[in-house]
Amino acid sequence: MHKILIVEDDTTIANIIKEQLVSWGMIAHCVTDFQNVLSDFTEFSPHLILMDISLPFFNGYHWCSEIRKLSQVPIIFISSAADNMNIVMAINMGGDDFIAKPFDMTVLVAKVQALLRRTYDFTCGSDILEHKGVILNLGDTSLTYQGIKLDLTKNEHRILQVLLEQKGKVVRRDTLMYRIWETDDFIDENTLTVNITRLRKKLASVGIEEFIITKKGLGYMVE
Asked: Within 10 A of 147 (CB to CB), how many other CB atoms are there?
Protein backbone atom coordinates (compact mmCIF):
# COMPACT_ATOMS: atom_id res chain seq x y z
CA MET A 1 0.00 0.00 0.00
CA HIS A 2 1.20 3.49 -0.80
CA LYS A 3 1.89 5.94 2.02
CA ILE A 4 0.75 9.54 1.72
CA LEU A 5 2.05 12.34 3.97
CA ILE A 6 -0.44 15.19 4.46
CA VAL A 7 1.14 18.55 5.36
CA GLU A 8 -1.98 20.62 6.06
CA ASP A 9 -2.50 22.75 9.19
CA ASP A 10 -6.32 22.83 8.92
CA THR A 11 -7.06 19.67 10.91
CA THR A 12 -10.57 19.34 9.49
CA ILE A 13 -9.32 19.33 5.90
CA ALA A 14 -6.36 17.12 6.78
CA ASN A 15 -8.57 14.49 8.45
CA ILE A 16 -11.10 14.49 5.60
CA ILE A 17 -8.28 13.93 3.10
CA LYS A 18 -6.83 11.18 5.29
CA GLU A 19 -10.17 9.36 5.57
CA GLN A 20 -10.69 9.55 1.80
CA LEU A 21 -7.23 8.20 1.01
CA VAL A 22 -7.58 5.38 3.55
CA SER A 23 -10.94 4.43 2.01
CA TRP A 24 -9.05 3.93 -1.28
CA GLY A 25 -6.57 1.55 0.31
CA MET A 26 -3.73 3.96 1.06
CA ILE A 27 -1.93 4.69 4.32
CA ALA A 28 -2.11 8.37 5.27
CA HIS A 29 -0.37 10.35 8.00
CA CYS A 30 -1.07 13.96 8.98
CA VAL A 31 1.77 16.20 10.14
CA THR A 32 1.02 17.94 13.46
CA ASP A 33 4.42 19.43 14.34
CA PHE A 34 4.95 22.06 11.65
CA GLN A 35 8.37 23.03 13.00
CA ASN A 36 9.69 19.55 12.24
CA VAL A 37 8.06 18.41 9.00
CA LEU A 38 11.31 16.74 7.91
CA SER A 39 11.16 14.46 10.96
CA ASP A 40 7.73 13.18 9.90
CA PHE A 41 8.98 12.81 6.34
CA THR A 42 12.03 10.74 7.26
CA GLU A 43 10.18 8.57 9.80
CA PHE A 44 7.08 7.94 7.66
CA SER A 45 8.96 7.62 4.35
CA PRO A 46 5.95 8.43 2.14
CA HIS A 47 5.43 7.59 -1.52
CA LEU A 48 3.75 10.97 -2.09
CA ILE A 49 3.23 14.25 -0.21
CA LEU A 50 0.23 16.59 -0.19
CA MET A 51 1.62 20.01 0.78
CA ASP A 52 -0.25 23.17 1.73
CA ILE A 53 1.53 26.47 1.02
CA SER A 54 0.41 28.52 4.04
CA LEU A 55 1.73 26.74 7.12
CA PRO A 56 2.86 27.79 10.63
CA PHE A 57 6.55 28.67 11.07
CA PHE A 58 7.70 27.85 7.50
CA ASN A 59 5.63 27.74 4.32
CA GLY A 60 5.19 24.80 1.99
CA TYR A 61 7.81 26.10 -0.44
CA HIS A 62 10.43 25.89 2.31
CA TRP A 63 9.56 22.29 3.16
CA CYS A 64 9.38 21.30 -0.49
CA SER A 65 12.90 22.71 -0.96
CA GLU A 66 14.17 20.87 2.12
CA ILE A 67 12.60 17.58 1.03
CA ARG A 68 14.07 17.95 -2.47
CA LYS A 69 17.55 17.95 -0.90
CA LEU A 70 16.81 14.41 0.28
CA SER A 71 14.31 12.89 -2.12
CA GLN A 72 12.46 13.14 -5.43
CA VAL A 73 9.23 11.85 -3.86
CA PRO A 74 6.18 13.29 -5.71
CA ILE A 75 4.74 16.43 -4.10
CA ILE A 76 1.28 17.83 -4.87
CA PHE A 77 0.63 21.34 -3.58
CA ILE A 78 -2.89 22.01 -2.26
CA SER A 79 -3.71 25.66 -1.66
CA SER A 80 -6.35 28.39 -1.93
CA ALA A 81 -3.56 30.65 -3.20
CA ALA A 82 -4.14 29.46 -6.75
CA ASP A 83 -2.96 32.48 -8.73
CA ASN A 84 -0.50 31.92 -11.54
CA MET A 85 2.46 33.19 -9.50
CA ASN A 86 1.92 30.60 -6.75
CA ILE A 87 1.33 27.79 -9.22
CA VAL A 88 4.54 28.64 -11.09
CA MET A 89 6.42 28.99 -7.80
CA ALA A 90 5.15 25.59 -6.61
CA ILE A 91 6.33 23.86 -9.78
CA ASN A 92 9.66 25.70 -9.81
CA MET A 93 10.31 24.73 -6.19
CA GLY A 94 9.98 21.05 -7.09
CA GLY A 95 6.25 20.37 -6.93
CA ASP A 96 4.77 17.85 -9.36
CA ASP A 97 1.18 19.12 -9.42
CA PHE A 98 -1.06 21.82 -7.94
CA ILE A 99 -4.67 21.50 -6.77
CA ALA A 100 -6.62 24.65 -5.91
CA LYS A 101 -8.85 24.75 -2.83
CA PRO A 102 -11.70 24.08 -2.58
CA PHE A 103 -11.37 20.84 -4.49
CA ASP A 104 -13.46 17.74 -5.12
CA MET A 105 -12.11 14.79 -3.11
CA THR A 106 -12.59 12.43 -6.04
CA VAL A 107 -10.38 14.65 -8.21
CA LEU A 108 -7.75 14.77 -5.46
CA VAL A 109 -7.71 10.98 -5.15
CA ALA A 110 -7.59 10.57 -8.92
CA LYS A 111 -4.61 12.93 -9.20
CA VAL A 112 -2.83 11.11 -6.37
CA GLN A 113 -3.41 7.75 -8.04
CA ALA A 114 -2.32 9.05 -11.45
CA LEU A 115 0.92 10.50 -10.06
CA LEU A 116 1.65 7.29 -8.15
CA ARG A 117 1.16 5.27 -11.32
CA ARG A 118 3.47 7.55 -13.31
CA THR A 119 6.16 7.55 -10.63
CA TYR A 120 6.44 3.99 -9.41
CA ASP A 121 7.13 0.74 -11.18
CA PHE A 122 4.28 -1.62 -10.48
CA THR A 123 6.05 -4.60 -12.00
CA CYS A 124 7.52 -5.43 -8.61
CA GLY A 125 4.03 -6.15 -7.31
CA SER A 126 1.22 -8.28 -8.61
CA ASP A 127 0.73 -7.88 -12.36
CA ILE A 128 -2.83 -9.23 -12.37
CA LEU A 129 -6.20 -8.48 -10.81
CA GLU A 130 -8.55 -11.46 -10.38
CA HIS A 131 -12.22 -11.68 -9.41
CA LYS A 132 -14.72 -14.50 -9.99
CA GLY A 133 -12.43 -16.14 -12.52
CA VAL A 134 -11.89 -12.94 -14.49
CA ILE A 135 -8.14 -12.22 -14.72
CA LEU A 136 -7.08 -8.74 -15.80
CA ASN A 137 -3.47 -8.55 -16.96
CA LEU A 138 -1.89 -5.24 -15.88
CA GLY A 139 1.12 -5.82 -18.10
CA ASP A 140 -0.94 -5.47 -21.27
CA THR A 141 -4.53 -4.68 -22.21
CA SER A 142 -5.84 -8.24 -22.04
CA LEU A 143 -8.28 -10.23 -19.96
CA THR A 144 -8.49 -13.99 -19.51
CA TYR A 145 -11.61 -15.95 -18.56
CA GLN A 146 -11.89 -19.76 -18.54
CA GLY A 147 -8.86 -20.03 -20.80
CA ILE A 148 -10.14 -17.47 -23.31
CA LYS A 149 -7.99 -14.38 -23.86
CA LEU A 150 -9.79 -11.16 -24.67
CA ASP A 151 -8.03 -8.07 -26.00
CA LEU A 152 -9.33 -4.80 -24.57
CA THR A 153 -8.96 -1.20 -25.62
CA LYS A 154 -6.96 1.10 -23.35
CA ASN A 155 -10.16 2.68 -22.00
CA GLU A 156 -11.84 -0.69 -21.41
CA HIS A 157 -8.76 -1.92 -19.56
CA ARG A 158 -8.65 1.18 -17.35
CA ILE A 159 -12.35 0.90 -16.52
CA LEU A 160 -11.93 -2.69 -15.36
CA GLN A 161 -8.73 -1.91 -13.47
CA VAL A 162 -10.40 0.87 -11.46
CA LEU A 163 -13.49 -1.23 -10.72
CA LEU A 164 -11.45 -4.29 -9.71
CA GLU A 165 -9.16 -2.22 -7.51
CA GLN A 166 -12.29 -1.03 -5.70
CA LYS A 167 -14.37 -4.21 -5.96
CA GLY A 168 -17.32 -4.15 -3.59
CA LYS A 169 -17.39 -0.35 -3.66
CA VAL A 170 -19.29 2.04 -5.90
CA VAL A 171 -16.97 4.10 -8.10
CA ARG A 172 -18.48 7.43 -9.05
CA ARG A 173 -18.77 8.32 -12.72
CA ASP A 174 -16.61 11.44 -12.37
CA THR A 175 -13.87 9.44 -10.65
CA LEU A 176 -13.98 6.81 -13.38
CA MET A 177 -13.88 9.47 -16.11
CA TYR A 178 -10.85 11.14 -14.55
CA ARG A 179 -9.02 7.83 -14.19
CA ILE A 180 -9.65 7.02 -17.85
CA TRP A 181 -8.78 10.34 -19.45
CA GLU A 182 -6.69 11.92 -16.63
CA THR A 183 -7.78 15.44 -17.44
CA ASP A 184 -9.84 18.19 -15.85
CA ASP A 185 -11.18 19.15 -19.29
CA PHE A 186 -14.86 18.52 -19.92
CA ILE A 187 -15.63 15.02 -21.14
CA ASP A 188 -19.17 14.22 -22.29
CA GLU A 189 -20.65 11.68 -19.86
CA ASN A 190 -22.12 9.82 -22.82
CA THR A 191 -18.55 8.92 -23.78
CA LEU A 192 -18.20 6.93 -20.56
CA THR A 193 -21.60 5.29 -21.10
CA VAL A 194 -20.56 4.21 -24.61
CA ASN A 195 -17.30 2.72 -23.28
CA ILE A 196 -19.13 0.83 -20.51
CA THR A 197 -21.70 -0.52 -23.00
CA ARG A 198 -19.00 -1.74 -25.39
CA LEU A 199 -17.06 -3.33 -22.54
CA ARG A 200 -20.15 -5.19 -21.27
CA LYS A 201 -20.84 -6.55 -24.75
CA LYS A 202 -17.23 -7.68 -25.09
CA LEU A 203 -17.37 -9.41 -21.69
CA ALA A 204 -20.68 -11.09 -22.57
CA SER A 205 -19.13 -12.45 -25.77
CA VAL A 206 -16.93 -14.75 -23.65
CA GLY A 207 -19.63 -15.59 -21.09
CA ILE A 208 -18.98 -12.89 -18.47
CA GLU A 209 -22.48 -11.67 -17.68
CA GLU A 210 -23.59 -8.93 -15.26
CA PHE A 211 -20.03 -8.33 -14.10
CA ILE A 212 -20.26 -4.52 -14.05
CA ILE A 213 -23.23 -3.33 -11.99
CA THR A 214 -24.82 0.09 -12.47
CA LYS A 215 -25.77 1.96 -9.31
CA LYS A 216 -28.26 4.51 -10.59
CA GLY A 217 -27.32 8.07 -9.76
CA LEU A 218 -24.02 6.98 -8.23
CA GLY A 219 -21.74 5.08 -10.60
CA TYR A 220 -20.57 1.52 -11.21
CA MET A 221 -19.17 -1.37 -9.24
CA VAL A 222 -17.97 -4.94 -9.41
CA GLU A 223 -19.58 -6.91 -6.58
From this structure: 6
Q: Which phi and psi (to 5°) does residue 37 adopt?
A: -60, -35
Q: Is the pTM of this model over 0.70?
A: no
**Cα(193)–Cα(189) distance, integer angstroms:** 7
Q: pLDDT tens digit string along 73-116?
A: 899 999 887 677 878 888 888 888 888 888 889 889 998 998 88
Rounded-to-integer distance, Cα 34 and Cα 28, Å: 17
CA distance 74 to 118: 10
Q: Note the helical H segments in the chain.
A: 11-23, 37-44, 60-68, 84-92, 105-119, 154-165, 173-181, 189-204
Helix (H, G, I), strand (E, B) or coil at 116: helix
- Looking at residue 211, its amino acid is F
User: Mind listing the domains of the chain with CATH numbers?
Assistant: 3-119 (3.40.50.2300), 126-221 (1.10.10.10)
Long-range contacts of 31-39 (CB under 8 A, 24+ apart): 31/5, 31/6, 31/7, 34/7, 34/9, 34/58, 37/7, 37/63, 37/66, 38/63, 38/66, 38/67, 38/70
Q: Could you give the CA distance from residue 76 to residue 36 in angstroms, rounded to a whole number?
A: 19
pLDDT digits (tens, 9 = 90+) for 130-183: 788 888 887 778 888 887 888 999 889 999 999 988 888 998 888 888 888 776
